[in-house]
Amino acid sequence: MKKNSRTFFCCQACGYQTPKWMGKCPDCGQWKTFVEEMQIVKPSQEARRNTLSLQSKPVPINSIKLEDEYRLLTGINEFDRVLGGGLVPGTLVLIGGTPGIGKSTLMLQALHGLANMGHKVLYVSGEESIKQISLRSKRLSTVSTNLLVASEIDIESIQTMIKETRPDVLVIDSIQTMFNPDLTSAPGSVSQVRESAIKLMFIAKKTSVPIFLVGHVTKDGAIAGPRLLEHMVDTVLYFEGDRNHVFRILRAVKNRFGSTNEIGVFEMNETGLTEVVNPSAIFLSERPVNTPGSVVTSSMEGTRPILVELQALASSTNFGTPRRTVLGLDQNRVALLVAVMEKKMGMNLIGHDIFMNVAGGVKVDEPAIDMGIVSAIASSFLDKPISDATLVFGEVGLTGEVRAVSHIETRVNETKKMGFSKCLVPESNLKRMTEVKGIDVIGITTVAKAIEILF
Question: Class of 282-454 per CATH?
Answer without folding.
Answer: alpha beta
